[in-house]
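Let us practice reading a record.
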Amino acid sequence: MRILFVIITICFNLNLIAQNITGAWSGNLDIQGQEMELIFHFEKEDNEYIGTLDIPSQGAIGIPIEKIEISQKKQLSLSLMGGTITYEGILDNGLITGKFKQGAIELDLNLNKTEMKKPGNINLPSSEEALELLAAQETGNYKYSVEDYFARPASSSFKLSPNGKYMSFRKKDENLKNHVYVKNVSSGEENRIIVEGEELIRGYGWANEERLVYVMDKGGNEDYHLFAINIDGSNQKELTPYDGVKVNILELLKEDKNHMIISMNMNNPQVFEPYKINIITGEIEQLYENKDLESPIDGYVFDKNGELRAYSKLKDGVKYELFYKMDDDNFKLIHETNWDESFYISSFNYASDNKHEAYVVSNLQTDKTEIFSYDLSKNKVVKKLFSNDQYDVSGISISRNRNWELDYFSYEGEKYNLVPVSDYFKKLHSRLSEEFENYDFYISDKTDDESQYLIYVTSDKLYGKYYFFDVEKNEIKLLFDLMPQLNEEDMSTMKPIKFKSRDGLTIHGYITLPKSAINGEKVPVIVNPHGGPQGIRDSWGFNPEAQLFASRGYATLHVNFRISGGYGKEFLRKGFKEIGRKAMNDVEDGLQYVIEQGWVDAEKVAIYGASHGGYAVLRGLTKTPELYSCGIDYVGVSNLYTFMQSMPAYWKPYLEIIKAIWYDEDNAEEKKIMDEVSPVFHIDKITKPLFVIQGANDPRVNIDESDQIVSGLRAKGVDVPYMVKYDEGHGFGKEENMMDLYKAMMGFLAQNLKN
């Protein structure tokens, strides 16, 4: 009995220590008179202690602690970075007193338990009651609710296993969680394989016939982790259990089914390096080192066998160098380009006898990107394969099953365009065009032998349907209607438009008009600038926001202003150093165009956008407040200085490019422009109602951007509804949060455009 008592006592002591140590502990290192804050985070998981280290001043977040030991005498010992860093201390009365060691350096470090605060100023967000009252301002009796447009489909994300024996999909439960199921195609049996908990499954796919991979982050922080699981639910494994590390998938390696190639910023938060990872065991091998931080490697090109064949380096922050592996295994510089030019390897041409032949997308000699067959060893064009006079082209599809035959090219103009090449695909495309006339259709997935296809069908009025296409039987069957509650005949048309800006530049865009406008009524309009801004564009197709707005009698205007993608490099360049200025002029000129057409009411105009679009809202309300009745800023930039200072560590190598796109505060003239176009410095000009929305964990647009504009306006006595979700990042991903957002938004619009 005495032995049992001792065991119980030890367990009790350990639990007591755990209770004391679990949480966040912070302290400062004194390094030659300069203080450096360290924050340790401790948790208990499966009777073991785990933890991470943050060094905020160095942009290092979530460094894994590899070893944590706690003795009965309340002695704490831990190590990290392969044992190169250690800390030993004694816990007493809420204080840990100890020594921090790194190599030959030994420093005193005392840690105090600290309460980790929610991001931002917690006193600023509006109460739930206030936001519910705002939502209640929409009182109309409408056929379709907010939920009808924005509730996640009952099933979605359909995928075929490589051999076609199984189909996977996501299915929503009563708690709005979207789990992943696998269905045996022949038997019809389906099983839940991946369970979605508090954190969202941001994406998933088939790694091979027997195993799925998926990615998750924490609360929208975009530090993606990679997981894998067998299709029977066994051997579930977190492949990259590294806090504060972001994972990108580079190659799935169909020729090596047990491995894939990823990149991670594990060794340095600012740069990514490639790794070969075993998706069964988690064993990982670093393939290349990103050593030169002054000119870091920006991208890696692997072939189908997982061999590194090329990489690009960012030189002087504004140029790209493409290095290619020659027959002697040495990497040779073959191209140096400006950052705003394109020359990249889309795929190697495995059908060619020349192993150095590749499909390259380039605009070095032209304004628009074109697709070439290119000999990388000789550094010359073999043949130009495809181009378009008006739009950039970049899409290319190759058949692995038919000896790497080239199937089609694609590009985006006013609508998505697909150009068949192979005889096989011409027949397939003809069959699908006949079946889905007047709709856009996309090959969503296919089996390795190309006997079965998943076809995704959509339009400006159809949210989307999945069809199963059995090629051998020539049968096309409806698999799933994602939004059956939305009748096409009730939806509004998205019309492509084209107009001249005030300086003569041709600008493209889209207008979605409610049926009352079609009948000749002038209606309120919501101007919706897109995010980015560089290289991003609005596209034709089903837009849930525009359709919701149309159902309430509002038109929606999308303008692909200068700097938008797809219209050539000169159009892109015309937007550099013009954000908040000529780019904003284009938006205003688009508004003037739709007013002149007699479609919309010039006295009832809202401006709404997210990210750069949110910035455009704030800029619009300070630049031309007379144009707008109200604005809705969703995760938008308010202060160009703090925006650039708070960007994630892995954006830092691109700071010179960001300055070239936006502005450089070290340039006196451009600093004046930054003062001019940063909305936070012109709060007095915001005279129209504003609604602000923010995800607290946003790594791109820090919550401080929204806090600044809200606190500034509130200080002047202006009431600003402010919605903050503390489990979201750069845009809301959780269904319940999206419902709150759009209900409040519709109440705000009703209050300011109708009442």
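A brief commentary: Residues 1-19 have pLDDT under 50 and may be disordered.
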